[in-house]
């Protein structure tokens, strides 16, 4: 029988996280942190920033403030 050729997988472009894995790990006291958690947390943080930026621009400001969250 002929051997099946493996399909070449495209390497995922690594996402540059804006969060610190080490700091997240240190903040967690009673659980382990799964590798997929970091990307999910990073995505949630990016969404918060995007929303805050939209609110600041809507209020004609160039500075993000705590109230924008």
Distance between the termini: 61 Å
**Estimated structural class:** mainly alpha
Strand content range: under 5%
Number of strands: 0
Any idea what the shape is? flat
Helicity level: 40-55%
Q: Spell the H/E element sequence.
A: HH
Major sheet description: none
Low-pLDDT residue intervals, each spanning 5 or more residues: none
Mean of residue pLDDT values: 90
User: What's the total helix number?
Assistant: 2
Q: Work out the radius of gyration.
A: 19 Å
Secondary-structure map:
Layout: H1 21-27, H2 35-58
Molecular structure report:
The protein is built from 2 helices and no strands. It has 69 residues and is mainly alpha-helical. It has a domain at 34-68. The radius of gyration is 19 Å and the shape is flat. The N and C termini lie far apart (61 Å).
Give the tags.
45% helix, 2 helices, 69 residues, mainly alpha
Summarize the structure.
This protein is mainly alpha-helical.
């Amino acid at each position: 029988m002929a051997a099946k050729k493996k399909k070449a997988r495209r390497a995922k472009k690594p996402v540059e996280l804006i969060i610190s894995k080490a700091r997240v790990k240190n903040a967690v006291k009673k659980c382990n942190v799964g590798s997929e958690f970091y990307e999910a947390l990073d995505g949630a943080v990016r969404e918060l920033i995007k929303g805050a930026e939209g609110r600041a621009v809507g209020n004609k400001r160039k500075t993000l403030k705590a109230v924008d969250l």
